[in-house]
Specification:
Blueprint: E1 3-13, H1 14-19, H2 25-30, E2 45-50, E3 60-64, H3 74-79, E4 82-90, E5 107-109, E6 112-120, H4 127-132, H5 137-141, H6 148-161, H7 166-178, E7 183-190, E8 194-199, E9 205-209, E10 213-217, E11 228-229, E12 234-239, E13 245-248
Antiparallel strand pairs: 1-4, 1-10, 2-3, 2-4, 5-6, 6-7, 7-8, 8-12, 9-10, 9-11, 12-13
Helix pairs in contact: 6-7
Amino acid sequence: MCRHVSYLGPPADLASLLLAPAHSLVEQAQAARFQSSGTKNPDGFGVGWYAPGDEGGEPARYRTDRPIWEDEAFPSIAAGTTSRAVLAAVRLASPGAPVEVSGNAPFAAGPWLFSLNGVVHGHFDGVGDELRRTVSGRRSRGIEGVTDSELLFALALDRIDAGATPGDALAATVGEVTARTTGKLNLLLTDGRQVAATAWDNSLFVRSRPGPSTWIASEPLDDEPDWERVPDRSLVEVAAPGTPRVFRL
């Protein structure tokens, strides 16, 4: 089912953002507190980040099919990497999906990073094929693997290519899926300057702090009281600097 998190704010090292908090991404991978499907996310992880001062640039990524708690390389990378915007996820593969790097968020295209915390029901039983037939040739050619996550990213990119805002693109993508099937559809999208996310049958929290900095995450990274749960069937949008806005879907 996965856990994911995004950050927009003053530059900080990845270790302090993702590994140091009391309920870090490592803890969420081993003992998630709000996950509706199990508590472990052992099927790899990924992190995408944007360099400070590189406005509009493409993000760097680190992805592996190893559990985050077994990865020996990432802690040193994280300690030495500073970023102004981050999207990271730990993965529990959906039934039928292979455990391989191509299935791990964040997925990337140009300046965009994307993650799905959830599942499209029936993806491997025809729904995925039906959805893929609606994707443009350009975006279809960019799909590397077989996951529902990457397919939803392509659907959202088509809408952005047509002029939609990130929030509108995610809302339209949820609509494409729910017109055909059910699912848990927490989508997360950023270009390093803005973030959009949906809460759809899965947990989502938001946190804003002076600075300003904003977190959007499947669950709080610590026990501080300033995390707010996003209502189900909602869309969150935030631009840096800015205050998150929440809309009902």
